[in-house]
User: Which sequence fits this backbone?
């Protein structure tokens, strides 16, 4: 299972990085979103994988490490805020610069 | 009802019920549920501008049961058609003349049609005199219209007295 | 109240930021100005008290939620943190004064954002927890994104697009790094990390290295380490004046983090993880310095010059980290304070020049004269002296410290030439800038813009720190050195290895 | 106990059916042809994942999955509605 | 008692699984968008309903008390599914999505897209 | 006496003219002179002691960490220079009183002048290497201010810049040399260093020290090839030239040679470099001086030549040469200062400095002419004048050295030629200006200057004569004291007599005089010869050089930095790839010892869908809406994965954030182009990016795998153990969020709040093109708010709120919590916006969202501050269980207030972002200032 998980994280990272390297704000923000999914899974993985062991006292026998979960939660929220800002900034750039390329007019 | 006192009693009842469904039936949750069933409608009343009065509980129950049955039947029907060859399929659009009035009743009707055998509500005409329906398989348009009128529109007219 | 003192530098701006969004402050410029002024003054007082505390005691911890380290989040006040807090307080105070002359009204929410920005910076200086550091990084980043666009304008938007998107990618790498760190260390408290670094499982060493180096990427991005520094000059040059001045401390947050993480956690006591960043930092810091010098010489506007100087100073500072001795860290610390305050002053001066020179703004071309040549020229002259590193202002002490920190071996052979040449380059470009901007005028000024007393006060306040840093240079260098020793030798208060864990109760 | 094995078998079989359904949904999403087909497929994917989560809960004998299913039910609708509104009006909040 | 409950649950599950499956097969197999719309709207909704019912039965038995909060999910689904279908159909009409050539009363589609009355 | 006062008094004096210039010119000059005069008095007072062989010292700690202390030391050399600096400085003050015009800012001028005086005194009195450098640099700065005093003149600006750049560069080199010296010796104390000559000379870095040190000295003293700045510094007002460029600043370089003579000299390296540079400078300066038409230009090159002479003397391997050098320092200062002042008078009274216009001034200003001619004669080395004596000593020493081995005979020959050139240009100065017919087109009719303007010249000329005639009486003691300070040992026998009999040096002098006269007589041929060459204008070349440097820098800079985010991101990614990948190369096998979970079909399929979704997102990224739909799959599967791997809270959060993100994307997409050009980059770029991103993916994937397969020993046990007892909740993740690490959460909602504010800022005043049709050119549907959607949405709102209350309240013990609840509420409200539109919502929900954010943050913060009342740190939580009849047992916890804050902040921020964005197209645009 760990192998599959890691492969998924790797592919998502690759996809995210590829999009982040594009020249259009939309693609970049899309890439950032993809990248942040990968990041969240990665950070989550630092607590290792546990099935049927939610860290709710009394609900399971073995508890998954709750700390990375809390960290990922924080990361998700921050990621949301950042994505939102980046998107609106892309709009602003479109309004101010007349196009949606990351470098403005020059290619 | 008054702004601060049960503005939407039916909603309140529903909310209390859902609260108890979610949390289980206990005294504590009953109290909390009551509070929420009061608070939430007070907060959301401004967002609810279609106050259709429903009446005739018996008719409602009969309608709901009928609907459940039809959903099951409709599913069997869909399953049959899906799994069979599609060549014999005769889909098509139907314009359903509405006798029913009011946004809420119309919504209920359209939803019912979508959940029941072979039909999906597509859209209303602007004057809400017609409901366009897409049917998976049409043999007789008029029969379909009559069927809907008979089974669903009539009871709804009764329930909402319109 | 005083037992909560450590928390003040974060709490005060947070509360201020909140109350600025609420009646009776919300929507009233004057009330907002006064409120932030008062908070800034309080921040100054708390920073001074904290510095005093750090001098009198061992490093102090403030445990959030009363949970013991390494489980709870610790704020730590040691000499290094206290110095940085004082620096940010002084900078914030002066820059805000400047902004109150009118820049604050060029867009909504300047004051609360300013407060949140300080909160983020101070939090990053105080926290002893690596994930909490990430959180404060994000606070200071999102605040900086928002402040960056203050006032609007095409170039500002373009700069913001670059700055924001690049930093978002950087934040992703931060989290990758943190993931690895937690996966190997099993803790987030930096002191605990330092403690565990030497005892890591051998199968975890390579992983921990990767994690530590990913953090180097992140801090390098903030600190303007080549090849991650290119975003900086245009961003700084294109934002509004007070924001650019405030940003002077932003690269320093990166430097500070490198100290906290790469000098302390992955420092000498780190066993196999010792000094993992040094090998990378050496050539890159040198390259940063060289690239900074080249960019500096190519500067066409005063703000760009100031921004490129930030890169040059970043290169120098990174070199002190690469040198990795307490002496070098002390040199870096002194130089950091000096370069932050003086760069900020230069940005503010550039702002005034920009406004008074009309169309030519701050470009190095012949144009109409500024309205207050003697005043602006004088202020510029002082800032330039300090930044070039000429006596009698603080730059020269910083330069001597840097040169001496390199020792007299082969390190010096690498470090001296770029450091000395950077001084020469600065001298060349500053003399060109100054003579062009203030003396090479033609025609008469077409506007009546004059500097607001608050603006002048702010600049003078910043500039005064430079002679002060020379006059009290002895005390300050002593302080830097003891802060550096504290960082190198006893990173942070050591945490009990593993506290007794109570039995699990359902 | 036979019935328990039967139940477990049913859970597994149902899971298999749901999983195949998911694959089919993705297939339709990739194929289109129109964007509305893809949205419909996404909507179905959302709803089918409710089934998956409920089954997971049954399989693990845990009640912790319920909220997830509830949220998918609520939010899947919002997402579909927003997408359709976008197709219709461009501006989803006007 | 337990085995009866188990059996009922198993049957419900299988029914649910079947309809979920059918809904998706229909989604894939049916010839045009409007016909495809029928499958998930009905079959999938119903399938989930059955699975939720199974879950209710099982959890009620396991906990020994009435546990029917899954009803809330069903409630949501049954309320929203027709609206989703309606919105999708509206969008498809608006976009003039192609439908089967031999669809009956095809001319109504254009009227519906404009929300006009039939002639 | 406290030595500190000697530089300190003039330093305080810099303020005097600034404060007093309103009181009139004479008063200003008088007041300005007061403190330097006092300082001079102090120096004079110390003379007896110094002559007696003592030295005065004063020291105070300053910045011991770097070895910089306030340390002054007055010995013979210091005394000599202090007298020059203060004495000539006072004369210059007097002179400048008449020289400056009404329009010049006299206060500023005097202030700079006194500042310079302080700096010079600091240099010559320093007893600490770094302090010496400190004042050294101050001389550069103050001289920059003085040269550029007439800053409206291009010449002045450029001349000042050039001087500053050259001497500044030298200063940096000097700093390097001094620090190396200090590090080698182990002390920055000058006395210690001066006593460590052997250590230095034997050190491996000695050559570096010599080179750096001499760079400093030579640039300052305008030695070849750094001499070019000095003539252009003549753009300064003449008092400045008289003071800085003849008597003092340019002497700072030779002062350094003198000061460090005992430790750095005495090696071949030193002698060869110093003597050759000196000789070259001597000849080049003298030759160039001959052709200058500008009076000050002639004097400037003459100065260069004489500085070369002094340098040459320091480079000759004899002690007497060093003594001669010190002697010539005095003599040159005296006659050159007077010549500059005379030139200034001529300029002042006639309006020109061009010798082609200036002719026959003897008739108009005979008195000044006499003074100038005496000084010029001294410059030429005419007997009975001071210049003669030191030149004789030079000639003598050139005959007694072996610096160049068998070629050493060249040195006396070249020195004699230099002497002849000096005679020639001095002759030209005298003849061309005061005789040679009538003036041509002078702006003014020349006449004698004001009485007191002449006084300084008179004093200096008298000194020339005095030293020239009775040298031993006039400067014998001073020279002795200074020279012994230079040599640091008993002086060899030497005599300061006018007449040494017929000897080699005298012959050389005669040859020089004869040669000079011949040269001048044949000047027409000489000028014609020189006229063939185009003038080398150092200023233009220097400016070109600087320009070249900046242009080349710009070219390299543009090459390095193309202002493209794509490159920045690429570099960032590659950098991360390299540093993170590097350690992995040392890793033997990624798999660790932790047992792995078995694979099952469902997970496999989910992973497959996830991968397909990812790839589809990437592939469809140019069809934006499609990409959005594809990324939704990814988000959904990630949420399911969280649920599967025992993280229900994460699953819930992921789901709700996912939907909010989609809505946001849709809102934004409306204003953005619907499609990206399919080929947004070259195939090469695509291949490059694909390779890089695959590598990054591989590294991250490997890291992830390595992490997952290693055992973890973490602090989390503590959280599980204390969650219920210490935090009052059974949902450990939630307790971490609101309690153990509540501070993170506070930060996180602050981020959200700030993002809301920032987005509001971005939206303020934004003008966007509103598309009238979709990407296929199809006009938008007419039905704004589909009735069914509207109705069902509003019916679902109470239900959604109830669910969010449910999620909120159980969060502490079960999956859920304030954040998720807040998002549910926000999304339910957004759904109303979608269904009903902004106008409809505006009537019902007219709430300043930033206020809601603030209230949320406030609640969270105050819930944390509450613990202060109980003397506990911030965010210390409290909880307890209560029981009410009928209701039963329930828990109350301060963490719930915190979570409520989270809830409000999330709602406020999300709505601020989404709803404001939605308002863009309506008439209800957000107003700046949030009012
Ligand atoms: Na809108
Ligand atoms: Na003449």
Assistant:
């Amino acid at each position: 299972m760990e192998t599959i998980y890691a492969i998924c994280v790797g592919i998502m990272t690759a996809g995210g990085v590829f999009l982040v390297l594009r020249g259009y704000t939309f693609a970049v923000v899309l890439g950032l979103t993809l990248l942040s999914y990968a990041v969240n899974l990665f950070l989550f993985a630092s607590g290792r994988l546990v099935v049927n062991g939610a860290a709710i006292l009394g609900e399971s026998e073995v508890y998954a490490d709750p700390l990375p979960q809390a960290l990922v939660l924080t990361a998700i929220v921050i990621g949301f805020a950042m994505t939102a800002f980046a998107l609106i900034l892309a709009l602003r750039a479109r309004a101010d610069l007349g196009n949606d390329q990351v470098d403005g007019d020059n290619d | 009802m008054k702004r601060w006192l049960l503005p939407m009693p039916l909603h309140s009842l529903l909310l209390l019920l859902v609260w108890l469904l979610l949390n289980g039936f206990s005294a504590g949750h009953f109290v909390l549920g009551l509070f929420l069933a009061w608070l939430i409608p007070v907060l959301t009343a401004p967002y609810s501008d279609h106050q259709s009065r429903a009446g005739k509980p018996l008719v409602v129950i009969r309608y709901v049961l009928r609907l459940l049955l039809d959903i099951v039947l409709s599913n069997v029907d869909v399953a049959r058609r899906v799994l069979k060859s599609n060549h014999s399929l005769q889909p098509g659009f139907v314009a359903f003349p509405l006798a029913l009035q009011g946004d809420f009743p119309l919504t209920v009707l359209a939803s019912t049609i979508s959940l029941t055998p072979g039909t999906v509500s597509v859209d209303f005409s602007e004057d809400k005199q017609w409901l366009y329906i897409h049917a998976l398989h049409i043999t007789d348009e008029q029969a379909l219209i009559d069927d809907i009128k008979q089974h669903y529109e009539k009871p709804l007219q009764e329930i909402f007295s319109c | 109240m005083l037992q909560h003192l450590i928390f003040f530098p974060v709490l005060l701006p947070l509360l201020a930021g909140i109350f600025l969004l609420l009646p009776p402050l919300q929507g009233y410029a004057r009330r907002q100005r006064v409120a932030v002024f008062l908070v800034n003054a309080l921040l100054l007082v708390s920073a001074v008290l904290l510095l005093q505390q750090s001098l009198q005691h061992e490093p102090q911890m403030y445990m959030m939620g009363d949970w013991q380290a390494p489980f709870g989040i610790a704020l730590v006040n040691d000499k290094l943190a206290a110095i940085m807090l004082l620096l940010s307080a002084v900078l914030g105070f002066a820059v805000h004064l400047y902004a109150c002359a009118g820049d604050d009204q060029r867009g909504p929410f300047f004051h609360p954002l300013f407060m949140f920005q300080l909160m983020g910076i101070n939090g990053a200086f105080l926290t002893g927890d690596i994930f909490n550091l990430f959180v404060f990084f994000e606070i200071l980043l999102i605040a900086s994104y928002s402040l960056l666009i203050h006032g609007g304008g095409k170039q500002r938007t373009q700069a913001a697009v670059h700055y924001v998107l690049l930093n978002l990618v950087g934040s992703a790498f931060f989290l990758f790094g943190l993931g690895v760190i937690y996966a190997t260390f099993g803790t987030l408290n930096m002191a605990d990390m330092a403690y565990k670094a030497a005892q890591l499982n051998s199968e975890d060493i390579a992983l921990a290295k990767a994690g530590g180096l990913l953090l180097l990427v992140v801090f390098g991005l903030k600190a303007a380490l080549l090849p991650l520094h290119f975003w900086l000059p245009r961003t700084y040059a294109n934002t509004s004046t007070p924001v650019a001045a405030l940003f002077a401390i932003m690269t320093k947050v990166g430097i500070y983090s490198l100290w906290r993480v790469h000098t302390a956690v992955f420092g000498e006591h780190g066993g196999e993880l010792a000094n993992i960043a040094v090998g990378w930092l050496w050539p890159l810091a040198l390259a940063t310095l060289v690239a900074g010098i080249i960019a500096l010489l190519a500067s066409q506007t005063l703000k760009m010059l100031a921004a490129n100087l930030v890169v040059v100073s970043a290169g120098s500072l990174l070199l002190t980290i690469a040198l990795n001795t307490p002496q070098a860290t002390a040199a870096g610390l002194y130089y950091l304070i000096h370069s932050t305050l003086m760069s900020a002053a230069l940005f503010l001066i550039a702002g005034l020049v920009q406004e008074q020179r009309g169309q030519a703004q701050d470009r190095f071309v012949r144009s109409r004269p500024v309205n207050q040549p003697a005043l602006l020229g004088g202020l510029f002259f002082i800032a330039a002296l300090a930044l070039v590193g000429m006596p009698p202002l603080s730059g020269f002490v910083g330069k001597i410290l840097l040169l001496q920190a390199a020792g007299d071996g082969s390190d010096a052979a690498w470090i001296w030439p770029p450091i000395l040449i950077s001084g020469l380059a600065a001298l060349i470009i500053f003399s060109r800038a100054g003579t062009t901007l203030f003396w090479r005028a033609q025609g008469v000024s077409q506007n009546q813009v004059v500097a607001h007393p608050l603006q002048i006060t702010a600049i003078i306040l910043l500039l005064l720190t430079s002679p002060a840093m020379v006059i009290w240079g002895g005390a300050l260098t002593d302080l830097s050195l003891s802060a550096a020793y504290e960082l190198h030798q006893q990173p942070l208060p050591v945490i009990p290895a593993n506290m007794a864990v109570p039995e699990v109760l359902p | 106990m036979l019935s328990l094995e039967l139940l477990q078998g049913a859970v597994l079989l149902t899971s298999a059916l749901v999983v195949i359904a998911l694959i089919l949904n993705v297939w339709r999403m990739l194929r289109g042809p129109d964007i509305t087909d893809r949205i419909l497929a996404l909507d179905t994917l959302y709803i089918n994942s409710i089934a998956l989560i409920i089954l997971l809960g049954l399989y693990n004998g845990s009640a912790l999955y319920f909220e997830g299913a509830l949220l998918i039910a609520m939010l899947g609708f919002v997402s579909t509605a927003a997408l359709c509104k976008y197709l219709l009006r461009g501006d989803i909040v006007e | 008692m337990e085995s009866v409950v188990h059996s009922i649950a198993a049957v419900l599950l299988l029914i649910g699984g079947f309809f979920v499956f059918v809904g998706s097969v229909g989604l894939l197999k049916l010839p045009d968008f409007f016909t495809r719309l029928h499958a998930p709207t009905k079959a999938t909704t119903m399938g989930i309903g059955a699975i939720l019912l199974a879950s209710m039965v099982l959890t009620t038995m396991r906990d020994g008390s009435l546990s029917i909060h899954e009803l809330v999910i069903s409630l949501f689904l049954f309320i929203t599914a027709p609206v989703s279908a309606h919105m999708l159909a509206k969008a498809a009409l608006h976009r003039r999505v192609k439908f089967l050539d031999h669809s009956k009363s095809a001319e109504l589609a254009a009227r519906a897209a404009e929300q006009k009355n039939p002639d | 006496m406290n030595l500190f006062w000697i530089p300190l008094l003039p330093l305080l004096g810099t303020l005097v003219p600034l404060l007093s210039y309103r009181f009139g010119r004479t008063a200003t000059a008088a007041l300005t002179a007061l403190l330097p005069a006092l300082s001079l008095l102090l120096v004079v007072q110390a003379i007896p002691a110094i002559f007696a062989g003592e030295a005065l010292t004063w020291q105070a700690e300053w910045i011991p960490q770097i070895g910089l202390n306030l340390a002054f030391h007055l010995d013979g050399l210091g005394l000599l220079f202090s007298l020059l600096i203060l004495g000539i400085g006072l004369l210059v003050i007097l002179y400048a009183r008449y020289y400056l015009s009404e329009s010049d800012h006299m206060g500023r001028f005097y202030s700079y002048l006194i500042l310079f005086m302080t700096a010079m005194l600091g240099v010559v009195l320093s007893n600490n290497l770094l302090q010496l450098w400190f004042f050294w640099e101050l001389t550069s700065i103050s001289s920059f201010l003085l040269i550029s005093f007439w800053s409206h003149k291009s010449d002045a600006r450029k001349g000042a810049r050039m001087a500053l750049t050259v001497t500044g560069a030298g200063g940096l080199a000097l700093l390097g040399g001094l620090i190396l010296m200090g590090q080698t010796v182990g002390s920055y104390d000058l006395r210690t260093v001066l006593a460590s000559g052997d250590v230095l000379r034997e050190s491996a870095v000695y050559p570096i020290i010599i080179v750096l040190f001499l760079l400093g000295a030579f640039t300052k003293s305008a030695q070849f090839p750094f001499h070019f700045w000095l003539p252009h510094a003549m753009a300064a007002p003449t008092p400045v030239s008289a003071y800085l460029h003849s008597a003092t600043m340019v002497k700072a370089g030779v002062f350094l040679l003198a000061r460090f003579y005992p430790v750095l000299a005495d090696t071949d390296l030193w002698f060869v470099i110093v003597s050759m540079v000196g000789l070259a400078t001597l000849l080049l300066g003298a030759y160039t001086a001959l052709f200058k038409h500008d009076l000050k230009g002639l004097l400037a090159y003459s100065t260069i030549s004489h500085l070369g002479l002094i340098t040459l003397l320091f480079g000759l391997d004899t002690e007497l040469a060093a003594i001669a050098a010190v002697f010539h320092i005095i003599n040159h200062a005296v006659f050159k200062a007077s010549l500059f002042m005379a030139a200034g008078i001529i300029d002042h009274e006639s309006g020109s400095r061009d010798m082609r216009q200036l002719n026959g001034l003897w008739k108009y200003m005979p008195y000044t002419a006499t003074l100038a001619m005496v000084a010029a004669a001294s410059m030429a080395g005419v007997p009975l004048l001071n210049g003669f004596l030191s030149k004789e000593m030079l000639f003598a020493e050139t005959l007694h050295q072996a610096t160049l081995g068998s070629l050493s005979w060249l040195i006396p020959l070249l020195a004699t030629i230099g002497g002849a050139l000096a005679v020639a240009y001095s002759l030209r100065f005298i003849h061309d200006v005061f005789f040679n017919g009538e003036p041509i087109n002078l702006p003014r009719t020349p006449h004698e200057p004001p009485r007191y303007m002449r006084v300084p010249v008179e004093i200096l000329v008298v000194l020339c004569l005095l030293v020239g005639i009775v040298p031993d009486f006039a400067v014998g003691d001073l020279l002795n004291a200074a020279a012994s300070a230079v040599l640091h040992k008993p002086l060899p026998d030497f005599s300061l007599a006018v007449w040494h009999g017929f000897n080699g040096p005298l012959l050389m002098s005669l040859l020089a005089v004869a040669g000079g006269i011949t040269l001048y007589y044949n000047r027409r041929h000489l000028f014609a010869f020189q006229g063939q060459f185009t003038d080398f204008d150092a200023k233009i070349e220097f400016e070109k050089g600087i320009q070249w440097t900046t242009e080349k820098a710009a070219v390299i800079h543009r090459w390095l930095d193309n202002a493209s985010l794509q490159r920045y991101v690429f570099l960032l990614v590659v950098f991360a790839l390299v540093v993170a990948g590097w350690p992995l190369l040392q890793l033997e096998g990624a798999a660790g010892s932790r047992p792995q979970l078995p694979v099952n079909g469902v997970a496999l399929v989910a992973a497959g869908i996830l991968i397909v979704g990812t790839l589809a997102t990437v592939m469809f990224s140019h069809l934006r809406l499609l990409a959005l739909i594809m990324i939704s799959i990814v988000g959904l599967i990630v949420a399911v994965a969280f649920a599967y791997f025992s993280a229900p809270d994460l699953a819930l959060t992921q789901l709700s954030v996912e939907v909010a993100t989609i809505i946001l994307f849709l809102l934004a997409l409306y204003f953005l182009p619907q499609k990206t050009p399919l080929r947004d980059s070259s195939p090469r770029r695509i291949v490059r990016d694909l390779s890089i991103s695959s590598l990054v993916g591989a590294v991250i994937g490997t890291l992830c795998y390595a992490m997952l397969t290693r055992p973890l020993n973490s602090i989390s046990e503590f959280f599980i153990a204390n969650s219920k007892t210490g935090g009052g909740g059974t949902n450990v993740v939630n307790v971490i969020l609101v309690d153990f690490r509540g501070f993170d959460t506070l930060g996180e909602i602050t981020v959200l709040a700030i993002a809301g504010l920032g987005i509001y800022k971005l939206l303020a005043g934004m003008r966007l093109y509103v598309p009238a049709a979709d990407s296929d050119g199809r006009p938008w549907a007419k039905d704004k708010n589909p009735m069914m959607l509207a109705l069902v949405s509003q019916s679902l709102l109470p239900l959604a709120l109830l669910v969010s209350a449910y999620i909120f309240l159980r969060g502490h013990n079960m999956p859920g919590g304030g954040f998720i609840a807040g998002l549910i509420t926000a999304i339910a409200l957004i759904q109303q916006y979608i269904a009903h539109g902004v106008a409809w919502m505006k009537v019902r929900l007219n709430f300043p969202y930033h206020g809601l954010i603030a209230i949320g943050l406030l609640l969270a913060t105050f819930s944390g501050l509450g613990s202060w009342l109980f003397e506990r740190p911030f965010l210390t939580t409290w909880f307890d269980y209560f029981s009410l009849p009928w209701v039963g047992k329930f828990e109350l916890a301060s963490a719930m207030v915190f979570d409520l804050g989270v809830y409000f902040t999330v709602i406020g921020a999300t709505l601020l972002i989404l709803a404001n964005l939605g308002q863009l197209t309506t008439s209800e645009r957000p107003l700046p200032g949030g009012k």
